[in-house]
UniProtKB/TrEMBL annotation:
<dbReference type="Pfam" id="PF05430">
    <property type="entry name" value="Methyltransf_30"/>
</dbReference>
<dbReference type="InterPro" id="IPR047785">
    <property type="entry name" value="tRNA_MNMC2"/>
</dbReference>
<keyword id="KW-0489">Methyltransferase</keyword>
<feature type="domain" description="MnmC-like methyltransferase">
    <location>
        <begin position="118"/>
        <end position="238"/>
    </location>
</feature>
<dbReference type="GO" id="GO:0032259">
    <property type="term" value="P:methylation"/>
</dbReference>
<dbReference type="InterPro" id="IPR029063">
    <property type="entry name" value="SAM-dependent_MTases_sf"/>
</dbReference>
<dbReference type="GO" id="GO:0016645">
    <property type="term" value="F:oxidoreductase activity, acting on the CH-NH group of donors"/>
</dbReference>
<dbReference type="InterPro" id="IPR008471">
    <property type="entry name" value="MnmC-like_methylTransf"/>
</dbReference>
<keyword id="KW-0808">Transferase</keyword>
<protein>
    <submittedName>
        <fullName>5-methylaminomethyl-2-thiouridine methyltransferase</fullName>
    </submittedName>
</protein>
<dbReference type="GO" id="GO:0004808">
    <property type="term" value="F:tRNA (5-methylaminomethyl-2-thiouridylate)(34)-methyltransferase activity"/>
</dbReference>
Amino acid sequence: MDALLTSASFVFRDDGTAYSPRHDDIYHSAAGALAQARHVFLQGNGLPARWRARKRFIVLETGFGMGINFLATWAAWREDAHHATMLEFISIEKHPFSVDDLHRAHAAIIDDAAVVPLAASLVSAWPPLEAGLHRLAFDAGMMTLTLAFGDAADVLQRLADHCVTVDAIYLDGFAPAKNPDMWTPAIFASLARIATHDATFATFTSAGDVKRALLNNGFEYRKVAGFGGKRAMLVGKRS
């Protein structure tokens, strides 16, 4: 479990978006990384309303990337006077950034005063790029981040085998056409095993294969307006 991983690399395009040469795809919309995270994943999962008055709420994300979704979620939890007592965030990443590249990305992308110090805390706690689970604790342990460095299918199967359950799913990662390994039937089968009876999900894509995989694994979905000029995205829940 201590095998070194191949780190991610990125370049900035002329419109300011971070681009992955490995996947020939962008990490975030040109309309704003934090705004995209809030629209697609927080709003798409009915957050913060769904975690209110809960003692514990668990979010699972299938692609950590630059950590923007995590940071947006952490900031929303902090700002919510009625937030869940404990928020646990589990995120999978096969090609994590080096700490220097993560810092460089945040410096260029994050301009929200409430998020800047959270990003600095994340960079300071960034673990070595070794396969396995890395648990980070923030805000006196009330906010935790478990970084699962490795292949998504393998990680999700292990989580399911260990009876981990989650309340909200952020289906992220690069587009299905660019990174099909993140959108396989095995991925969705494991997600169905770890989703609680009232779990929700949200994703930026509305690809046909994704819709079919959701239905085949006990999720119901609906199309809603996407972010940044994108016509549609999917949100839904366990059926």
